[in-house]
Design goal:
- The chain has 10 helices and no strands.
- By secondary structure, the protein is mainly alpha-helical.
- Helix 1 packs across helix 5 and helix 2 runs antiparallel to helix 3.
């Protein structure tokens, strides 16, 4: 089955968390994202508690901690980092003029995407599967992604505190220009791989593939937005121009240095 009562309950929980986006629409894809992943982990523990196993515990804890870290970091940045807020006021609309129907569609779309992204983990418990090699490999990859994302966030914060008006090119930023987005891709690649041996039937595979491709699209869209913003901010910097010529934008060792010409990346 593609849809079960557990999936419906989890979707309702995610929709509830994502209501925060009606306060500020960008929160659908920031705070709503992080805290939705946490609630999915919590709901897994609650809904599948009668079939409790090590796979359920490990994956749920990883999702909970990941979501709380990301949601907490984004909340801190939104509420406490004045330089970020000043910059975002000129970059992102406050959404006050966004039609209510458009907000409804964004709310539902985001909630569905978060559910699809985590579906390989959810289907493992629906299908009554426990730990196996694919699950272990997938979770190791996911934890690696979380570490990369967390370290890159810390490195960028440290760099901005030292020099708020300069781009960050230290630490992981020497390898790619968007290591936090790279971390996200690795996280969800791991989740996707963890479900390889448990996805049952073409329907479950389609759901999982759509979820993974969805987050890949969003990360490349985010990289494009960042590239356009940094091009405007540092257009007179020779250091910046040299940096972007030699540092891939998202994937290490792949000579993809720019995605700004790809206007279809508008997520």
């Amino acid at each position: 089955m593609i849809i079960t009562k557990e999936i419906i309950i989890i979707l309702l929980a995610v929709l509830t968390v994502c209501l925060i986006g009606f306060k500020k629409y960008i929160w659908f894809i920031s705070l709503g994202y992080g805290f939705s992943i946490s609630i999915i982990g919590i709901m897994n523990l609650v809904l599948f508690r009668n079939n409790m196993n090590i796979a359920l515990v490990i994956s749920s804890i990883i999702l909970i901690l990941y979501g709380l870290r990301l949601g907490g970091f984004l909340a801190y940045r939104e509420l406490k980092v004045s330089t970020y807020n000043k910059k975002m006021k000129t970059e992102i609309s406050d959404g006050k003029n966004m039609p209510f129907f458009a907000k409804i569609m964004l709310w539902i779309t985001c909630a569905l995407l978060y559910l699809l992204m985590t579906s390989p983990v959810i289907y493992r418990f629906i299908n009554n599967d426990t730990i196996d090699n694919c699950f272990i490999i997938g979770m190791i990859i996911t934890v690696t992604g979380i570490i990369i994302e967390s370290v890159s966030d810390l490195q960028k914060n440290k760099s901005k505190k030292k020099n708020p008006n300069r781009f960050c090119d230290s630490g992981l930023f020497k390898i790619v220009r968007c290591p936090n987005y790279l971390g996200e891709l690795i996280i969800w690649l791991g989740v996707f791989i963890s479900g390889f041996t448990t996805l049952n039937g073409i329907g479950q595979w389609i759901v999982a593939i759509i979820g993974f491709l969805g987050i890949v699209y969003i990360m490349f869209s985010g990289a494009r937005r960042l590239e356009l913003r940094q091009d405007r901010t540092y257009k007179d910097s020779v250091e910046y121009k040299n940096y972007i010529k030699k540092t891939p934008i998202l994937i290490p060792f792949i000579p993809l240095y720019s995605v700004k010409k790809h206007k279809w990346l508008v997520g």
